[in-house]
Structures are given as structure tokens and as C-alpha cells.
């Protein structure tokens, strides 16, 4: 870390060359034009991803250059190279945090919460009375800051991952319930009447028609819940955790003003979230390839 | 549908199930308080040597000083006391915290909505931005911004920004995403025939945005605003967690968990629930007014 700090002070000490700002403007024009040309390429499937990647790369480059040139204090905004360095230096520690937060709390909580939400939705699908009672209440829970139960969960389940998983279960349960119920209503009247004319039983109709028709809704909830679960677990760790975990790392290192490592932990969380999201999208494409919402886009 | 029903029928059909579900929740809460507090009550309140009846045990679990699970009536009493026994500007009055949290939520919500509208208009009108920005906007939500909240506060605090602004910034970050995504969808929702009609009228881009795309996007906008305001509230509350935040519902939760004041945690949770419902209710009311004036059902 010390040598990069030396470079930084050196860059700050020499002051800015007179050609610096025109150079930056020129580079910005080049960047904008390259992204523009990239986006204009017609009819290739990889163009979207490549454009986004190019744009991201330019942003990181400018960030690095500007932070170094203007000598922005590290506490405010560490340069990307510093963050990468922190990631590299503290890889084992961050891996331990990842296992603690994502491997235990998030995965278990997410699976339990989504599974429970799904099962309850299928169970009350047959009882209109319960549906009419639960649905308004469940929809209202989206307006409630459920993360607030974290301190209570810590009191009940202790500092380790079960308390985080409990928060995650609570946060993911309701979106899944509401989405699954909405999805079960999604099958068209025509198709339902076809099933009826085949004298198909209720479970048969559920398996052959209504659950497949509900897949986009279910996957939508799974995707939203992946992000929610990550956030829930990390915030729950602010209220008390063992000496590992992404939330623990962020709060302790922020208190010590060790910003590169804080940003490193954030990068780990962000990459985890993006990968989970991408995996679920891929899974959805495999599972619901026939559905219009997937076919068209 | 519902218009043909008498009032009584409507009450039985729509409201009875909800009331039943809510009663079940209260009952479950009471039994949880009874079950989870029993151990503590036996150890701390009752005299084990002399023996006790089940009735005494039940009473003890309902009236403990620092219960694991406060009974609903204890929370209600604490809630009422906080609202009536202290002046509004006292930190012991929950209304004071609601005002603090509500301010940053609403400010962040306004900023986030404005940013979301701006971004969505830009994205719809520029293919370059569409391909370069939209993936990053989606990815930005996998960054657990709540985790960055403490850092943002520390950084902005060192720059001399304290109070509402940093918290509103966090709330904004959470608000802008649903608005952006829904508005991109909404601005693209007019059918080809409608856009072609604008073209035959030789309408400028600006006119077709103002006369066609924006009105068409309204039904997409409001659900996103409801989600956004709830997300903003969570953001504002979590931004209050880092040390230094003296006021707000989030700070109230944290102090409650530090000092083991369970009843205080629960009443703060109830208050944040009410605040969340009030905010989404206001947005829903505005939605109804706007869509009705536009001749929707």
C-alpha cells in the first residue's frame, strides 16, 4: 500500500500539467465516440454486453486518472487500483466473509424464504377466503422496512448466521408469496377451460398449466429476492455478528477509515449480486423458453 | 363486480378475511410472547422454590420488564406513552423521529424520482445510452447501497454535509432504480400505430414525448413510485444506523438494541410500519387522482 501512496503524493506534488484538462476532454470525446460506435453496430447479440463493458471500462479509467491527478483523499474515494490491491491483499479474509454471509445466511435464508412463500401460495390458492385475507396484508408488507427486525433477530438467534438467515427469510417470504399468487392467476381462461374439458383434476391443472404459466412471475420474485437477501444479511450484520461477514467487514473497516478494503467488500457483494442475477436469468431462459416474455426479449 | 354488491356483502367479502388474518397474527404474537418469555419469567420473576401456577406464569410473561418478545399490549402502551407523555421535540417522542426520518425519505424520494425520469427519457431517446447505461443501472442495485450508507455518511460528514442531505442521498439511490426501469418500459409502451400517427403529424421528438409517451407511461410510473417511496424509507432508516445519528427511527432501533430495550425496538418498528403505510398510501391517493383526471377507471 505504501508505494502507491508515494506515487499518489508524487503525482499531487508535481501539480497538473497544462495539457491535462484538454487531454481529459479529448479522451472523453474519444470515449463517448467509441461507445456510440459500439452501440450502433447492428444485429449482433454480443453488442449490448460489449457496449456496457466498454462504458464501464472507460468510467473506471477516468475514475483512476481523475482521483490520482486531483489528489482526492483516499477516505473520500479510493482509486480503483487501490481497491483492486485491497482485494488482492485481503483475499483470504474476504473469502471468509463471503462464506459467512453469502454461503450461510443468504443462501439458506433465500432458499427457505422463497420455498416457504411458494408453498404457502400454492396452499392458499384453493381457499379464496384466505387469499382475500392474506393478499392485502402481504402486499402491505412491501411498504414496511422489514430490515428493522434485525436487532430482534440478533436477540433471538444470537450473533451467528441463523439470525441473519431469519431476517432474510422474513424479507423474501412476502414478495414470493404475492408473486406466486399473481402468477397462478396468469393462465388464460381459454386454456383453463380446455383443461376443464379434458376433465383434468386440480393438481393436474396446476402442474400442467398454471405453474408453468406462473414461471415468469416466480422468477421475477426470485431475482428481486436475491438482491433483497444480500442487503438484508449485510444490514443485519451491522447489529451484531461474529468476527466475519461482509457487513461486519464494512462496518469495522469503515470505522478504521480503511476505505480500500471497505470498497473491496462492496465489490465482492456487488459481483455476488450480479452473478446471482445472471444465473437466475439464465435459469429462467432454460425453464420458460416457450413463454412470450422470454421469447421476445 | 363490486358495485352491484350491498355494503354488508362487501364487508363480509372483502374485509372479514383481512380481519381474521390480522386477528390470527395478534393471537400468534401473544402465544409467541408467552412461549418465548416463559424461560426468562421463571428465572427472573417467579419464585421457583415456592412453586407457581400456570396462570401466574402466563401473567408474568405478559408483564415483564425487558421481555424477549413484548406482548402487543405492552408495545401499544409504550407507543401511546411515547406519543402523549413527551413534547414533540423530545427524542423520547416517536413523532420527533418520524419527522426526522420522513424528511430525508421525502427529499430522497423527490430527488430519486427526478433522476429516474431524466435517465429514462435519455435512455429511450438514445440507443447508445440504452446499451451503455441500462445494464449498469441494473447492476447498481446489486451494490448493497445500504452497506455503503455508513461510508457515505462518514465521507459527507467530513466534507461538512450533515443532517438530512446524506440520508436523502441514500434514499435517492434506492428510489431512482424502480422509477427508471418502469419509466423506460412505460415510455416504450405506445404501440407502433400511435407513434406512426405522431410521425404523420410531423410531431417533433419533444412533442411526441410530451403528448404520447409520458401519458402512456403514467400507469407504469405510479406502481414504481410506491415501490420507490418504500425503498427510500428503508434507505433513510439504515442511513440513520451509523453512530452519530442521534435521531430518526433507525437510530431509535439501534439504541433500543444497544440497551436491550425490547419494547422500544418494537414500538419503533410499529411506527416505521405506520410511516411506510402512510407514505405509500399518499402515493396511491395521488395516483388515483391523476389517473381519474386522465379518464382512467
UniProtKB/TrEMBL annotation, chain A:
Q: What are the ABC transmembrane type-1 domain coordinates in residue numbering?
A: 116-287
Q: Which Gene3D superfamilies match?
A: MetI-like
- Give its localization: Cell membrane
Q: Which InterPro entries match?
A: MetI-like, MetI-like_sf
Q: Which Pfam families match?
A: BPD_transp_1
Q: How does it sit in the membrane?
A: Multi-pass membrane protein
Task: List keywords of the entry alphabetically.
Answer: Cell membrane, Membrane, Transmembrane, Transmembrane helix, Transport
Per the UniProt record, which residue ranges are transmembrane? Answer: 19-39, 46-66, 105-124, 136-159, 165-184, 205-222, 228-248, 260-283
Q: Protein name, please?
A: ABC transporter permease
Record the organism: Rhodoferax potami
Which lineage is the organism of this entry classified under, starting from the top rank? Bacteria, Pseudomonadati, Pseudomonadota, Betaproteobacteria, Burkholderiales
UniProtKB/TrEMBL annotation, chain B:
> Transmembrane segments in this chain: where?
12-30, 94-124, 136-162, 168-187, 208-234, 265-291
Instruction: Tell me which InterPro entries the record gives.
Output: MetI-like, MetI-like_sf
**Main location (coarse class):** membrane
Q: List residues of the ABC transmembrane type-1 domain.
A: 94-287
Q: Name one Pfam family in it.
A: BPD_transp_1
Q: List the membrane topology term(s).
A: Multi-pass membrane protein
Keywords assigned = Cell membrane, Membrane, Transmembrane, Transmembrane helix, Transport
Q: Where in the cell is it found?
A: Cell membrane
Q: Which family does it belong to?
A: Belongs to the binding-protein-dependent transport system permease family.
Q: What is this protein called?
A: ABC transporter permease
Amino acid at each position: 500500500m505504501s508505494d502507491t501512496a508515494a506515487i499518489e503524493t508524487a503525482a499531487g506534488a508535481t501539480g497538473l500539467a497544462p495539457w491535462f484538462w484538454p487531454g481529459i476532454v479529448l479522451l472523453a470525446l474519444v470515449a463517448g465516440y467509441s461507445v456510440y460506435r459500439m452501440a450502433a453496430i447492428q444485429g449482433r447479440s454480443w453488442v449490448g454486453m460489449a457496449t456496457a463493458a466498454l462504458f464501464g471500462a472507460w468510467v473506471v479509467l477516468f475514475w483512476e486518472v481523475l482521483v490520482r491527478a486531483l489528489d482526492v483523499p483516499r477516505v473520500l474515494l479510493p482509486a480503483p487500483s487501490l481497491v483492486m490491491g485491497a482485494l488482492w491483499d485481503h483475499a483470504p479474509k474476504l473469502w471468509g466473509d463471503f462464506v459467512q454471509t453469502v454461503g450461510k445466511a443468504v443462501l439458506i435464508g433465500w432458499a427457505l424464504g422463497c420455498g416457504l412463500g411458494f408453498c404457502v401460495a400454492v396452499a392458499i390458492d384453493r381457499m379464496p377466503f384466505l387469499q382475500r385475507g392474506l393478499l392485502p396484508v402481504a402486499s402491505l408488507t412491501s411498504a414496511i422496512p422489514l430490515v428493522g427486525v434485525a436487532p430482534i433477530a440478533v436477540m433471538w438467534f444470537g450473533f451467528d448466521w441463523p439470525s441473519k438467515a431469519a431476517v432474510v427469510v422474513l424479507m423474501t417470504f412476502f414478495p414470493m408469496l404475492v408473486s406466486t399468487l399473481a402468477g397462478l392467476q396468469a393462465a388464460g381462461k381459454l386454456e383453463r377451460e380446455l383443461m376443464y374439458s379434458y376433465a383434468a383434476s386440480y393438481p393436474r391443472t396446476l402442474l400442467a398449466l398454471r405453474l408453468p404459466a406462473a414461471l415468469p412471475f416466480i422468477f421475477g420474485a426470485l431475482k428481486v429476492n436475491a438482491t433483497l437477501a444480500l442487503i438484508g444479511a449485510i444490514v443485519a450484520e451491522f447489529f451484531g455478528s461474529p468476527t466475519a461477514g461482509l457487513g461486519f467487514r464494512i462496518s469495522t473497516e469503515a470505522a478504521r477509515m480503511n476505505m480500500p478494503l471497505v470498497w473491496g467488500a462492496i465489490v465482492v457483494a456487488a459481483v455476488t449480486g450480479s452473478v446471482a442475477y445472471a444465473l437466475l436469468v439464465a435459469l429462467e431462459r432454460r425453464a420458460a423458453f416457450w413463454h412470450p416474455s422470454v421469447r421476445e426479449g | 363486480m363490486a358495485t352491484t354488491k350491498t355494503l354488508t356483502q362487501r364487508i363480509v367479502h372483502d374485509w372479514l378475511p383481512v380481519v381474521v388474518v390480522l386477528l390470527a397474527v395478534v393471537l400468534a404474537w401473544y402465544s409467541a410472547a408467552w412461549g418465548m418469555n416463559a424461560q426468562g419469567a421463571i428465572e427472573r420473576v417467579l419464585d421457583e422454590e415456592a412453586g407457581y401456577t400456570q396462570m401466574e406464569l402466563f401473567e408474568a410473561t405478559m408483564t415483564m420488564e425487558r421481555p424477549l418478545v413484548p406482548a402487543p399490549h405492552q408495545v401499544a402502551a409504550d407507543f401511546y406513552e411515547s406519543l402523549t407523555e413527551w413534547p414533540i421535540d423530545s427524542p423520547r417522542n416517536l413523532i420527533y423521529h418520524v419527522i426526522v426520518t420522513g424528511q430525508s425519505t421525502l427529499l430522497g424520494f423527490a430527488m430519486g424520482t427526478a433522476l429516474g425520469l431524466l435517465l429514462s427519457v435519455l435512455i429511450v431517446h438514445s440507443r447508445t445510452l440504452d446499451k451503455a447505461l441500462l445494464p449498469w443501472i441494473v447492476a447498481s442495485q446489486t451494490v448493497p447501497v445500504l452497506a455503503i450508507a455508513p461510508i457515505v455518511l462518514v465521507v459527507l460528514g467530513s466534507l461538512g454535509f450533515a443532517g438530512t442531505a446524506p440520508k436523502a442521498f441514500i434514499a435517492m439511490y434506492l428510489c431512482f432504480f424502480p422509477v427508471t426501469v418502469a419509466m423506460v418500459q412505460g415510455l416504450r409502451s405506445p404501440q407502433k400505430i400511435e407513434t406512426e400517427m405522431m410521425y404523420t403529424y410531423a410531431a417533433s421528438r419533444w412533442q411526441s414525448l410530451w403528448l404520447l409517451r409520458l401519458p402512456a407511461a403514467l400507469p407504469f410510473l405510479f406502481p414504481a413510485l410506491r415501490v420507490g417511496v418504500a425503498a427510500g424509507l428503508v434507505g433513510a432508516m439504515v442511513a440513520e444506523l451509523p453512530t452519530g445519528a442521534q435521531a430518526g427511527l433507525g437510530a431509535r432501533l439501534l439504541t433500543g438494541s444497544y440497551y436491550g430495550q425490547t419494547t422500544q425496538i418494537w414500538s419503533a418498528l410499529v411506527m416505521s410500519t405506520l410511516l411506510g403505510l402512510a407514505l405509500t398510501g399518499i402515493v396511491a391517493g395521488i395516483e388515483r387522482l391523476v389517473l381519474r383526471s386522465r379518464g382512467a377507471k
